[in-house]
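MODEL INPUT / OUTPUT PAIR
PAIR INDEX: 1
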Amino acid sequence: MTFSFGKRKIQKVQYTYMLPIPVDWVRNMKLNKGDSLKIEMTSDNRLLISPIPQARQDSEGTGAPNTV
């Protein structure tokens, strides 16, 4: 399945650059607010964006170090 979303403009918010993700893609991937995405750069400098399965997100937690 191929989607074409046209152009997207990069936005700068404080010290971060952001790129809006199309709502249709998010819905098709069955993602919700707070879900995680994996972003990889290929050898030809393209970006691949993939959803991280919910079970894996749950096991990874927030990425914060464990404290005792």
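PAIR INDEX: 2
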Amino acid sequence: MPRFRMTVEYDGTPYVGWQKQENGHSVQSALEKAILALTRETVLVKGAGRTDSGVHARGQVVHMDLSRPWEPHKLRNALNAYLGMAHEKVAVIDVQAVDDAFDARFSAVRRHYLYRIISRAAPLALEAKRAWWVTRDLDHEIMHAAAQTLVGKHDFTTFRSVHCQAKSPVRTLDLLDVTRSGDLIEIRATAQSFLHNQIRSLAGTLKLAGEGRMTPADVRAALDARDRKACGPVAPPEGLYFMKVEYPGDRTEP
């Protein structure tokens, strides 16, 4: 059966998350319904990573198997037409035909996430549900310094949801950068894989550092504690974006 790799963008606000659940509509089910409407085939769409309710994606990658070949651009356009008719907040950005060895989740070598904070007194209008609104001023340089104490291979039990199903809390964080442009603070994280709620937990703790309530040394001590109680508050989902997935053989940007 022909296998297809798709890059997908979505607004996570109206969904219960990526994965199909009994308590509401998911991104996965939106895609599968569009495929069924187009092809009359019931397929399982597998994603590179699960996102929680309210989390957005600009570069989620999925794969699926269909019974017949399609020209990738025709499949993309047809699926977007069906998603539009269903008023879904999901768009298929790119489609590629791949071989059976490709797996959106297990073939991935790096995943990139972005967390957005807007630090200002006025509430958000255009950016509502698109960023975490923080009314206190944040020192992004202190946040960045604290972030560097977390880069590398560590036991991230402190920054792991109690509901995380991963077998090990050890992960290698390749990058955790904090930058600022005006009121917008961006936290960029890269790793092969992340634990459940890891990035939102990191963002919440770095926010405390930006407020002066934790030092970089305190953040490192929280990591070393391997204790969920040492973590700051988990940042809300609306600031998180699944940006990109890298696979062997992909062209990387210079």
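PAIR 2 NOTE: The mean pLDDT is 96.
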